[in-house]
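== Folding task for one protein ==

=== Format: two labelled lines per protein ===

==== Paired sequence and structure tokens ====
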Amino acid sequence: MAARTPSRPVGTVTRGTTNPNRLRRMDRWIAASHGPALRRADAPLAVDLGYGAAPWTAVELLNRLRTAAPAVEVVGIEIDPARVAAARPYAREGLVFRHGGFEVPTDRPPQLIRAANVLRQYDEEQVAAVWERLRARLAPEGLLVEGTCDEIGRRHVWVALGPEGPRTVTFATRLGSLDRPSDLAERLPKALIHRNVPGEPVHAFLRDFDRAWAAAAPYASYGARQRWIRTVRDLSADWPVTDRAGRWRQGEVTVAWAALAPRG
């Protein structure tokens, strides 16, 4: 797979923190929601952008996506040349590692770009430009998934964007570790994390989420999953939840981006 050679990678080096299985919730959602588009592509390509100091997330992405689209190939892209050199021994059929950044140096437009824990260190004002640059690299049915999670992947929030712009926000958690839904606020992606203040939609959403969680307390006797499902069902009366109970059972809820988008 030949690559375009950029004059200089775009972006800055991240901390590189990574752990095995850290992105399992995001990967599981991508395989379920984007699998049909990957299968429709003639030569589906996925990018793990900014995989970090170790290649685990790229290796896992290939394995998980191939359960949904056996022909998919993955390119791990890192802006730090030393990380690329360290990852290359893990390359195999369908998986390569390449030096680069937000210019996404691949030989064809990818059907998927996953950028997890990459924009955390950037300013909020920089996010829109990065999103635009990455969206411009997508194939026509492509998807950009950008978000943040904790160190072991128990709590995760991501935005899904098509070539036209942002579509949805997904909140995902290990239910047994959750005290209340607003615990996920600390993992909001950069576009939203500073907007969790009164007067902003995401703040109102998390407030209503906590209220619905409290009202569903009687369901806790049936387990955290049943309490979460009831909570999301009640929440969907006032917020545009776009997924259904099959995803809620996984500790997820997806909401239309327009309902949570920052004001001003």
Summary: Residues 1-6 have pLDDT under 50 and may be disordered. Residues 24-40 form the longest helix (17 residues).
